[in-house]
Task: inverse folding
């Protein structure tokens, strides 16, 4: 090797070392930044020119990255479901000492009726039984409010989620364009690639998403059901929120480029992500539980109904428990949507409304003497009270679509409803724990491949410094040799 070649080789080594040092400094600075991946200066050499930096690449694994996206979406979905069910369970079935559940309220009502039946001439016990009935109705009313509040909250969160998705799609389009331009011009695009992956990771929290890489680094985005989110341009994700929810309200669907991806009419339903979890909570779990509450209310009206005692074959009418559809009885074994939010104690038996609590013993709560059981006005009459107590234990049909016990006593059905919502919550809790564990492990595996290890970076920096020092020494030596040679020629 002549002196010129040695000088050129050392010079190129210095330049490469400088770039390597810059890349290592980037890695050290970005070590704690979310979404940053380790950058690598790829070296190459050509005969006679020495080493040079051929490209700057980033440490990445598409397979591990996809696993993180899937785990993130699944975890967000289960968390959304669990959070909603937790609110419902906490307000309607938790802490038995507070008698919040329909089952506890029914048991308290039955006990109050039994005490009244043991002393039917005791007005205080009659008032206590009516008060227990009012507590029962209030519990169903409040449970309905809780369920619809959770549905309304889920709907509002869906609006926020859709806004986040559209914002992220706009950011994705900007960064994706920069990547394509940078790839064509040969620029360093590794930071842009990190930004794009970070945007997609954030998007995966909102809905299941997959990314396909094409020519010149261009990317396309799809939902986990196949709907196009981005292909050259961002597709519109739209949703019209519902401001108020009642038991009969049906929430609107989310659309991706005009295609429904949530709701009963969805042709490409989302499979994971917060948006999918919120839609499931709003349209399925809460609707089923509301139907169960409505059936408990219907069962109460049916159990405490009054029958014609005059022999005129008059139809049954609501008694202690009534609703706006009175005097007609709700259809048997059929959910009367929203009934749990409308049920109340008849004013004629409620002392707070000027009513007579002893009508619970005597009958004719509906106001017609044809439905009077204690026709003799006997203060010790308890047959009607015993009949009501027996009715609470008697089997009756319930709507099978509610996923509660289709045949059994009112207390049995209420118990099955409590068990159902508790099982739903526990299942969601288990799923959340599992998915979070899976996400942690997937994230750790990706970090091991693409993350920055400070010890490795410092060790590499020392190697680069040694190379830089050696190249500098070669240049210095060649310079001295050239000076000596020129001096000898001059002499």
Result:
């Amino acid at each position: 090797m002549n002196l010129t070649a040695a000088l050129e080789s050392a010079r190129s080594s210095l330049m490469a070392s400088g770039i390597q040092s810059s890349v290592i400094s980037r890695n050290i600075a970005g070590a704690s930044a979310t979404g940053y991946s380790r950058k690598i200066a790829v070296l190459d050499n050509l005969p006679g020119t020495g080493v040079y930096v051929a490209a700057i690449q980033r440490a990445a694994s598409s397979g591990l990255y996809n696993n993180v996206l899937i785990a993130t979406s699944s975890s967000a979905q289960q968390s959304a479901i669990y959070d909603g069910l937790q609110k419902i369970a906490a307000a309607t079935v938790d802490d038995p000492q507070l008698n919040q559940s329909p089952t506890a309220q029914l048991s308290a009502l039955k006990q109050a009726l039994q005490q009244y039946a043991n002393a039917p001439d005791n007005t205080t016990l009659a008032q206590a039984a009516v008060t227990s009935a009012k507590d029962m109705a209030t519990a169903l009313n409040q449970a309905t409010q809780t369920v619809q509040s959770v549905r309304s909250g889920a709907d509002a969160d869906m609006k926020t989620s859709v806004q986040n998705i559209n914002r992220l799609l706009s950011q994705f389009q900007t960064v994706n364009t920069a990547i394509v331009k940078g790839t064509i011009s040969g620029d360093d695009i590794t930071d842009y690639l990190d930004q794009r992956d970070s945007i997609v990771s954030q998007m995966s929290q909102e809905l299941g998403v997959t990314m396909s890489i094409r020519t010149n680094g261009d990317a396309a985005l799809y939902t986990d059901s196949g709907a196009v989110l981005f292909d050259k341009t961002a597709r519109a994700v739209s949703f019209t929120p519902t401001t108020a929810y009642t038991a009969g309200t049906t929430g609107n669907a989310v659309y991706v480029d005009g295609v429904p991806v949530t709701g009963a009419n969805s042709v490409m339903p989302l499979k994971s992500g917060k948006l999918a979890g919120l839609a499931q909570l709003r349209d399925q779990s809460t609707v089923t539980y509301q139907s169960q509450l409505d059936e408990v209310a219907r069962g109460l009206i049916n159990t405490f109904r009054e029958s014609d005692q005059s022999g005129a074959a008059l139809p049954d009418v609501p008694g202690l428990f009534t609703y706006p559809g009175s005097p007609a009885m709700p259809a048997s074994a059929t959910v009367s949507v929203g009934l749990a939010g409308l049920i109340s104690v008849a004013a004629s038996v409620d002392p707070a409304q000027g009513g007579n609590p002893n009508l619970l013993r005597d009958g004719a709560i509906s106001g017609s003497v044809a439905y009077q059981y204690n026709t003799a006005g006997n203060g010790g009459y308890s047959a009607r009270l015993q009949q009501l107590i027996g009715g609470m234990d008697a089997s009756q049909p319930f709507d099978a679509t509610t996923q509660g016990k289709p045949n059994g006593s009112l207390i049995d059905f209420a118990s099955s409803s409590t068990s159902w919502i508790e099982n739903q919550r526990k299942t969601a809790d288990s799923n959340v724990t599992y998915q979070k564990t899976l996400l942690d492990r997937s994230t750790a595996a990706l970090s091991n491949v693409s993350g920055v290890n400070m010890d490795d970076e410092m060790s590499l920096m020392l190697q680069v410094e040694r190379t830089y020092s050696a190249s500098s020494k070669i240049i210095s030596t060649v310079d001295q040799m050239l000076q000596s040679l020129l001096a000898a020629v001059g002499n």
